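Q: Please design a sequence for this.
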């Protein structure tokens, strides 16, 4: 059954990469636009489909989890490196925009944390009736 999990992962990757390439062509960019993200979404959808449930249970599911755990950090690191190189080549405005986005994201972490803890407290008080 492990081979079914790897096959499902491969099919999702190829389909995602093809869709990403076609999206790039449609919007006029000579690049794959979100192919890896689309592949991961397809994998999530496939894993939650009743028809494919037998393929993603047991050892096959463990195989998918393993490759997902290995694959996602590598792709994110590669994409981050490309973004930094493009920003440096793009000039000062691209660097300022990138730094500003990171600073705003870090600043919003406490705000989002408070929102999450307030909802958690409300659910505890209501007995989780939401």
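A: Design:
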């Amino acid at each position: 059954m492990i081979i079914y999990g790897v096959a499902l992962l491969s099919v999702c990757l190829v389909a995602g990469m093809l869709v990403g390439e076609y999206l790039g062509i449609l919007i006029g960019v000579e690049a794959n636009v979100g192919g890896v993200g689309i592949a991961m979404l397809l994998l999530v959808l496939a894993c939650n489909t009743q028809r494919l449930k037998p393929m993603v249970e047991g050892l096959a599911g463990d195989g998918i989890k393993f490759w997902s755990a290995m694959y996602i950090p590598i792709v994110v690191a590669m994409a981050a490196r490309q973004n930094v190189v493009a920003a440096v080549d793009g000039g000062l405005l691209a660097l300022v925009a990138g730094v500003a986005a990171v600073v705003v994201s870090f600043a919003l972490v406490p705000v989002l944390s408070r929102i999450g803890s307030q909802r958690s407290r409300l659910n505890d008080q209501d007995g989780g009736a939401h």
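Q: Thanks. Anything notable?
A: The chain has two domains: 2-90, 91-125. The longest helix spans residues 92-126.
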